[in-house]
Amino acid sequence: MPPINGLHRRHALQHAGCGAGLLGLAGLLHDEGLLAADSEAKNLNPLAAKQPHFPARAKRMIWIFVNGGPSPVDTWNYRPELDRWNGKSIKEFDTAFENTTGFFRNAVGNLMQSPFQFEPQGECGLMVPEIFPHLGRHADRMAVIRSGYTESNNHSPALFAMNTGMPRMGFPCVGSWVSYGLGSESENLPAFVVMSDPKGRGLPKGHAANWSAGYLPGVYQGTWLKPDGPPISNLQRPSQQTDKAQRNSLDLLRELNGIHLQQHPQDTELAARIESFELAWRMQSAAPEALDLTKEPQHIHDLYGIGDAQCDHFAKQCLTARRLVERGVRFVQIYSGGMENQRSWDGHSDIEGNHRQFAGETDKPVAGLLGDLAESGLLEDTLVVWCGEFGRLPIAQTGNKPGRDHNPHHLVAWLAGGGVRGGMTWGNSDEIGYKSAEDPVHLNDLHATILHLLGLDHEQLTYRYNGRRFRLTDVAGKVIHNLLS
After folding, report:
1. How many CB atoms lie within 10 A of CB 354?
2. What residues does 438 pair with on adjacent strands?
3. pTM strictly above 0.70
4. What is the distance between the alpha carbons of residues 246 and 236, in angstroms, rounded to a whole number?
5. For a Cys-Cys bond, which of 187, 199, 288, 436 suits 147, CB 3.0-4.6 Å?
6. 87 near 110, Cβ under 8 Å?
7. How far is Cα 321 from Cα 362, in angstroms, rounded to an integer?
């Protein structure tokens, strides 16, 4: 058969086949939102505020991350029976105990009662240790989880697990998931801000991987505020550069990057970089004002403990957190404690001195934060969480001043504000505080509950990566509805 208009039958079939394949590819790209037209149809700002899956009880969150592993029986899980067991071998209580959780297996002592006195606080009668005199006044606002547990007994993977749901780096943290799901209420400040211990103790183990966006677009990672010196580098433009000149440079850069992005719409890192330039521009005016604590009256400084040598650094961070969330920042995380051992809540030796010190640094500031949020009305839709990466054993780690070793089988946390049912406890450990026993709460359950309070279904909040849809809670997690008001 002669060719029609120069087109052979073989060529016609070839072109038709390629066209069918391209139609299929276009359909797949559309489903993933990777077509240029789809990208242009979306809001160009990936941090623009988004609607939750259902009406949210909380609009924002502040996480007080108690880095190092606070001891449950010395903080929020009063175990009076531990007094009776004091000085006895844990094998009398649990014959199968083999100390598979601790790091110092040659320094295993006997069961040790808490060195702190506990008293009932609030109408709920929550038993609060003497090291939290200010937080005790907010007992009726707290929902205390006394049956938490995790898997890892090592700080780095445990930190990753508590932050990302996975015990290894490379996964998005809670703050990144929340920013991805809800965006930001502010166009001039980051959606997710992190603060760390400023007393020369270093960052938590794993460093910035704890607030990483993982495989999510980079725009959702946490913005770390430096604890010493200017909190954000290069926030002030060079004195010789005018406002107009900087704006012209950014406009040209955005135009050039935009051309490349149209050609490669799947390049999420480039999209994040473009937005980061614009956010940095807007932050030059918004961030200095938000971080200027001198704008606050003296009674607010006193409420948080600013000026008190013991807690001044953490007080300033808690007040900064309040100023950030009221200006639209979606998620703030503050780390108490640094790299290891006595520089954090990691009380391997002298558990009494260690916890008394770090509680003294955080008690008044966190209590001030709760009181200030409540007074302003922000606590109604601001979720506050207090939690570390794991707990500690109820036995003594031997030494001149006994401490406690790691324990992933039992940890404590408390939540307040943002739709939380205050004045209650949930779950329980065994009578000596060794393992979570009644209504155990895995960290996946904690994450699912946090997302639920923020109006996000943890099973629907997903991101496709390497051919699979991932989520914060992986394939587990259940919402603890009893904690909800």
Report:
1. 26
2. 428
3. yes
4. 12
5. 436
6. yes
7. 14
